[in-house]
Every structure is written in C-alpha cells, then in structure tokens.
Amino acid sequence: MAAARVDASALRRWAHTAVTHLITHTDEINRLNVFPVADSDTGTNMLFTMRAAVAGTEGRDDLDLVGLAGLLADGALRGARGNSGVILSQILRGLADVTAEGGLTEIDGPAFAMALRRAEALVVESMGQAVPGTIVSVLSAAAEAAEQRTAAEAAEAHAASEIADVVAAAAAAASIALDRTTDQLDVLAEAGVVDAGGRGLLVLLDAMTAILSGTAPARDTYRPATMAEPAHTDPAPPRFEVMYLLTGSTAEAIDTLRAELDALGDSVAITAGRTGAHSVHVHTDDAGAAVEAGLAAGMPSGIQVTLLTGARPVAAGSQDRAVLAVVDGDGAATLFGGEGARVLRPEDGRPISAQQLLRALVEADAAQIMLLPNGFIAAEELVAGCTAATGWGIDVVPVPTASMVQGLAALAVHDIGRHGVDDAYTMARAAAGARHGSVRIATEDALTWAGSCKTGDGLGITGDEVLIVGRDVVAAAAGLIDLLLASGGELVTILIGAGVDDGVGDRLREHVRRRHLGAELVSYRTDHDGDALLIGVE
C-alpha cells in the first residue's frame, strides 16, 4: 500500500520494510564487505541493528512521529552491531533530530533532505573523518540530490516538495555514487566491489520508495569481480572488534577516549545518542585496553568482543590452564593457594573492579583460566573484566560460585588432565551441588522471617533470607546445618571468619557427630570479613 506522506504510520511501516529488504540483501551485502575489514558481516550487522531499532518500538502504537523516530534511533544505538550498525544508528538519529527540532507530524521533502545531511554530519563526527568511497560518500550524494530536488520544486512555486520525488532522487543519486566507490578506494578496486555499507544505505532508501510508491526500484545484484591476488602484502588486520555502550561520560573524556582508541587500532567510531549515551566501536589487537579505556571514560555496558575474520591467532600463555579464585582473608588465601589456585583478594574491603580482575587474569599467565568469583565480584565488573581478558588471548571460564565454600567444592574436582569443557562442567556441577549459607551477628534489634532478633544474636542465612535466629553464633550455625542437611549430605565445611573463636568449629563438629550420623564436618580459619561463618554442605 503506497503512502502519500511519511507520518508515524508510514515511518513504522518503513522500518519493518527495511528489515525485510535487509534480510533479502544480507548475503549480497556481506559478499561485498572488504572494508575496513573483510569480515563479511556488514549486511548481517545492519540487519541486526535495524531489528533492534524496530524492537524498541514494539507495543508502542501510541507514538507520534517524533516519539517513534526517537525510539528507532535509541534502539539502533543500543543494539548497534559492527561499524555499519553504528553508522545506521546515526542515520536514524539524523531523522529523529530533524523531526524533534521541528515538532513534525510528517516528513516532507525538505525535512527528508535535512535529515540526510544531518545524518552525514553525525556519521563523520562519529568516525572522526570522512573516507571517500564509503557509505559517507553515498550518503552525501543522496543528501545533495534531495536538497537539489527540494530547491527545484520550491523555485517552481510548489506548495510543498513531494516526498516521493525527493526520496526517488536521493536513491538514484545514491546508486550512482555507489558505483563510483569502486574507483575511490583502493581496497574496493582490488576486490572489484562497491562499498558494502553504501549498498546497505541504498536498500534503506529503496525501502522508503516502496512505502511511498508501492514498489521498490529494480536493482542489479552487486557481485565481487573475479580478480588476481594483489601484488602487495597488506599488514595483518586487527584481531578484535570491540563495542560497548558508554554512559556517565563528559566531552573531555570522550575526546581522550577517541585519542586512546586511535592509538590502539582503527575503525574508531564514538557515536553520541540523544540521551547522552555513546556507542563505542574499534578494531584492535588489544581488546582489554580498549575496554579499560572505556572504564576510565565512563560506565561501559553491553560489551562485545568479536574475533575478526582473518585475524592473527591468539598467543597462548605459559601454561595450558589455571584456576583463579577470588577470596577474602589470609586463611582463605592460604587454603585456596594450597590447592593450587591463584588468588585475588579485595583491597581494603573494596569490591573487586574489572581492572583488578583483568590484571589478575593476565598475570595468571595461562591460555585458559577457570575463574571462581565466590560472590566477591559484581556481575557488571565480572563481565567487563572477563570480556577484556579475551583481548589478551585468554579463554576465561567463570564457574558460578556464590560463596567460598562453593569455590572449594569446585576446586576439589578440578583436573587439568581433563578436556577444558569437561573440567568446567565438572567444577560447575560440584559448585551447584554444594548447598551453602552463612552466619552473621545481629547488629540491632529487628524482625526477621524467622522471628525477632536482638543485638548479638546469631543469624543463620541462606540466599538473602534469615532462616534461623539463635542466642549466639554456635546456636544459629547448628540450626542452619540442620536445615542444610535435611535433604541429605555427607560433608559439612565451615569457614571461620575474623574475630570468631576457634572453639566454634569444635562445638559444631560435636553437634554434627551427635545429630547427623554419617556426616563429617571440617572447619578452616579463613579470617574473612563480614560473615562470622560460611557453611557449605556437599
């Protein structure tokens, strides 16, 4: 169904049509992808980015044009995939900015031309410079043609530029500019292809034409030309594509980040969203440093590190596999270290940061590392640190251990002689099979799920709930052990925290001997802070 104007309804239909057309042309675009890296994913990245844009508007039938264009741009920024996805997010932002600034209820010819020109400026700003023969050249030609068409219609005293004519003119100019990209960039000429991103832009423009006229222009399929091997040898491409969303940054921090990423690699793109967030993209050999630069500039999230096609192989560490355990307390460090694990300890009681984790993973000097977080690392820091470690060629396997007692259970079954996947599965299964809880000392009178408590009482806790209130640490621990052993178990492990009397372990061992035949209790002084006792049952 053709549309006479681009209002909210038509723009929504265009977004869905763009996804459909990108699906049709994904393989064609991927085959053209030789710049900036020949990783054959430009079509896929544009498709996934456009899908993310559309997903952000689902269920929002109440949106007007300004709101819809804004959500499309925001969704694309958050879901941007690859260099081409970042650029696509800026094309959508150009449209959103123009509609918002004018408070538009529909996009006419001049507004469309203005949106294309704004998108060009945003793309150049995000990339740092305009490279001839890329999607920027195609976008610039489309914007110029749209401006000329609106100017011509204005000179002919038209009441308003016909949007369909302006879009058609932009698409025709984009097609011509796309053909010229082969001669503008050496790497395209050597491969005998047009620019893949420019081809994707033409798909988007043709999708708009289909909405306005009812049919898309017929285009020949773009194919790489058969070519001989180039006479020269190019340097090996960067190994990794790094992307993340950055919030909480400043203009100065962004300038510093761009300079650092330029020094680390190429294809740098830092794209500003409408709400202050930035999408960051770089191709580099040092993914860890790229993420660390983001951590210094703000708060990275949605970190993606992808091994680029044709990249150099990652160097292995001096050993095949190691275990890194995050622990608290001198006794814990000795206990885990005695079992062969490297240890990472919080500094001055502060949470483990992604930078600390990355440093410890690198210093472990192993090709593969089984990581035991033991409940001491926040999820976002864990993801950031592990992701950054891939930039150093480290295969990090986080084993889901929520407590040091689960970490001990996992470490007990670790076997470097097994295949890595088998070892990781066995360790994870052992950790999951260790039911665990803790005992704390109440610091005030309060009401808990297990009843009221007074200052100095012992509190038996599993998860985030108080299940046992006892007159002291031993009473609470005995009650908690009874609960944990109710569904069976053979080994009870007690880790004794700082300031707790050594006799607690002996009294609980006697309790288990009298009340739970066949079960054994072992205790270790770890001198961890916080909980008085950590208890595990296997």
Sheet-strand content, in percent, reads 15-25%
Global Rg: 30 Å
How many angstroms does the end-to-end distance come to? 65 Å
The total beta strand count reads 16
Estimated structural class: alpha/beta
List the helices and strands and how they pair.
Blueprint: H1 8-32, H2 42-55, H3 65-78, H4 82-102, H5 109-127, H6 135-155, H7 163-184, H8 186-191, H9 196-213, E1 240-247, H10 251-264, E2 265-272, E3 278-284, H11 287-297, E4 299-307, E5 319-326, H12 330-338, E6 342-344, H13 354-363, E7 366-372, H14 379-390, E8 395-398, H15 404-412, H16 420-432, E9 435-441, E10 446-448, E11 451-453, E12 458-462, E13 465-470, H17 473-485, E14 491-496, H18 503-515, E15 520-525, E16 533-537
Parallel strand pairs: 5-6, 5-7, 7-8, 14-15
Antiparallel strand pairs: 1-3, 1-4, 2-3, 9-12, 9-16, 10-11, 12-13, 14-16
Helix pairs in contact: 1-2, 1-3, 1-9, 2-3, 2-4, 3-4, 4-5, 5-6, 5-7, 6-7, 6-9, 7-9, 10-11, 11-14, 13-14, 15-16, 17-18
